[in-house]
Amino acid sequence: MIYLDNGATSFRKPPQVRQAVLEAMERCANPGRGGYPAAMAAAEQVYRCREAAAELFGCQPEQVALTSNCTHGLNIAIRTLVKPEDQVVISGFEHNAVTRPLHALSAKVTVAGQRLFDWGNTLEEFEKALRSGPKAAIFTHVSNVFGYILPVEQMARLCRQYGVPFILDAAQSAGAIPVDLQSLGADFIAMPGHKGLLGPQGTGLLLCARLPEPLLQGGTGSDSIRQEMPDYLPDRVEAGTVNVPGIAGLAAGLRYLRRVGVENIGRRERTQAEKTAAGLTRLGLKVFSGSHQGGTVSFVPSMDCDELAQKLAKRGVAVRAGLHCAPLAHKSAGTLETGTVRVSFGHDASPGQTQQFLAAMAALI
Ligand code: PLP
Question: What residues in the chain have per-residue pLDDT under 70?
């Protein structure tokens, strides 16, 4: 299979990831819940994951909270910064993982910057929205639908200038573009462990520059006498037993990324995305591409998007069709009615994948 749905999750993980999961299942009990060797081995495994993440993302190990996916981390961060009916600014390319929690809080949302691949528009609209004094800003690093890389360093600078706390959704950038908590000055950065970080599904990270509000209350193996959640990181937001095998796999994914290099992987993905966009354009399709684009390309085919994705699947090519859990991004790009077909490259992006995808497309249209 030619797997081009890395925007959903990375599928062919490095073999070390699987190995680490298996070893953790054989060796590890519950971390922080005992002083015997299997519990200690689990605690060490979990700490190694925090340490590897801290090194890669410019923070301290205790600032790395382990979550079950990116949505989980975003919910914690949003619930910390946003109270019911607060005013919030978001980009025009946010995922439902941001917009639904805001909707649940009845937040007053200003959508700033809806033009694809246009940094000038994104920054101008964003600054305008910050001037109205929102309680928080939340923005994605890369659009999961169109691969648009937002000017997050400049957006972060504007947030600091206007004194607005912010959350970065690094779901589509972590593992392909450098992300650094300290230099960005973000309050929180949420990311999945199972996409670009190459860990198993059911893993995620929330990088915390301030103390978050817990979503769940429960046992942490620490401060057990108190009925309040611990008031320190990361225990405050890690109630209940963590996913030790998943975390061990995620740590292996992080080590792999360090060895291969995030920038190398990002370059590889972008190269294939560019070739894909050019090839689809040659086939006469409406393709969304531009100068600030990562390893993801969306297009509108002449037939129904789902039908095309199914036909591609029969030819052994995995892509995703529809709204990609991001109706706001489609509204911004004018594709809410049709949806798009999305091709998203991963750490194993190769010219062969692009060629086979384009050959299948040429045969189908
Ligand atoms: N944010 C963006 C931009 C995404 O693309 C996704 C997943 O596709 C998420 C958040 C949610 O990630 P998860 O499925 O790990 O909760």
Answer: none
Among protein residues, the one with the nearest Cα to ligand 1's atom 2 is 171
Predicted TM-score (pTM) of this structure: 0.98
How many beta carbons lie within 10 A of that of residue 160, not counting itself?
A: 14
- Chain centre to alpha carbon of residue 84: 25
Our answer on whether the CB atom of 204 is closer than 6 Å to any ligand 1 atom is: yes
Q: Which fold has domain 15-260?
A: Aspartate Aminotransferase; domain 2 (3.40.640)
Decide: helix, strand or coil at residue 316.
coil
State the pLDDT at residue 34: 87
CA–CA dist 168, 78 (Å, integer): 11
Residue 125 is predicted with a pLDDT of: 98
Cβ-Cβ contacts under 8 Å for 259 (sequence gap 6 or more): none
Query: Does the C-beta of 91 come closer than 6 Å to ligand 1?
Result: no
> What's the 58 CA to ligand 1 centre distance in angstroms?
22
DSSP letter string over 236-283? GG--S---HHHHHHHHHHHHHHHHH-HHHHHHHHHHHHHHHHHHHHHT
Cα within 13 Å of Cα(293), Cβ side: 25
Tokens coding 317: 């090519």
| Ligand 1 geometric centre to CA of 325 (Å) | 8
Domain boundaries, the chain: 2-11+263-364, 15-260
> Which helix H or strand E contains 197, and what residues bound it?
none
Spatial neighbors of 236 by CB under 8 A, at least 6 apart, are 65, 211, 212, 214, 229, 230
Candidates 3.40.50.150, 3.90.1150.10, 3.10.450.50, 3.40.50.300; CATH matching 2-11+263-364: 3.90.1150.10
Give 70 Cα–ligand 1 centroid separation in angstroms. 6
Question: Distance (Å, rounded) from C-alpha 327 to C-alpha 322?
Answer: 9
Which of 139, 210, 202, 125 is closest to 172 using CA atoms?
139
- Most informative mutation of 5, 72, 75, 95 for ligand 1 (most atoms within 8 A of CB): 95
H or E, element range at 24: helix 15-27
- The pLDDT value recorded for residue 33 is 85
